[in-house]
Amino acid sequence: MVCNLNCTADWRPSVWGQCSRTCGDGGVQMRLLRCVWRGTRKPAGRNCQSSLRPIAIRACQEASNLPPCPPSTGASAIVAAAPNAIDIASKPFLLKGLENWRGWKLYDWSTDSNGNFRRKF
Questions:
Q1: Cα dihedral sign, 86-90-92-96
Q2: What is the pLDDT of residue 107?
Q3: Is 112 inside a domain boundary?
Q4: Of 5, 13, 23, 83, which has the fewest CB atoms closer than 10 Å, so is most exposed?
Q5: In a domain, 40, yes or no
Q6: Residue 88 in contact with residue 79, Cβ under 8 Å?
Q7: Alpha carbon 9 to chain centroid, angstroms
Q8: Is 39 part of any domain?
Q9: Per its UniProt record, what InterPro entries does this chain match (predicted)?
Q10: What is the domain range of residue 14?
Q11: Number of domains making up the chain
């Protein structure tokens, strides 16, 4: 096979998810990042390591429009990573339980019985 543009791997981000907060300040938005071959958009494994990785977490864009939170609001969350990702630091994630997020303390990654990586914060 002759290498051309199809031999180049790029990061392909998903759209930004919903804000983790429905009230107050401090919410975050997350998105999936996948390394894919430019021409086919098929998974490209570790071939994106040399390219600049886009951000996957950002402050909510609409945070200034959210109403204040009641004093008792709080939540915990788990971020679950896809088991076929390359390394823990770059794993794509699924977001659950962050509707009333107030801040985070990151814990170590762990593996559940299905082989998914999880990180509490």
A1: positive
A2: 58
A3: no
A4: 5
A5: yes
A6: no
A7: 19
A8: yes
A9: TSP1_rpt, TSP1_rpt_sf
A10: 9-59
A11: 1
